[in-house]
Amino acid sequence: MTDHEKIYSIIEENKGFITSAQLAEVGLQRRILSKMVASGSLVRVVRGIYALPDVWEDEMYFLQYRYAKGIFSNETALYLHGLSDRTPHAFTLTFPQGYNVGGLKKLGVKVKYATLGMYNLGIIEMPSPCGNPIRVYDKERTLCDIVKGNNGCDIQLVNPAMKMYATSPGKDIAKLMTYADQLRVRTKIQKYMEILL
Known about the structure:
By secondary structure, the chain is an alpha+beta fold.
């Protein structure tokens, strides 16, 4: 298999993308990607990510690749889980406390922080709207974050999300209450659950 065949094989597995890290894993030099960009067979999307010219760009996947510690959360996670019909105006990512987010705010991304113990709570992997794997907080963690972050103020966001969750087949009330205890929002979550259930 030639170097180009190896690269196209990786690209096919990754829905049209390849990262410099993936190239290094198979023992190929990064200069091959530069030559492919110069010839027009690949496009440099962001630092370290390359794509076929006709591939739809996946902002969420690229963002998480560049900021690997970021977990999609809050309004963004609500939308990804189908608990909100509002398309987020800006992506929200949660990072461990003290993590340097560089120029993320300049990109219009909402940045949240969590202590190390709470940062790992409820992380799952799911497909982005374009089908690439991204890390997101699960439904239960997201609901707790929304209630905590909004102090119950954004009723137009919280109420529909809680109603959708309460009627969803995959709900896990026990997990929701465990998270609510850990994130110190049990009283607020209980009020919503009492109204809806």
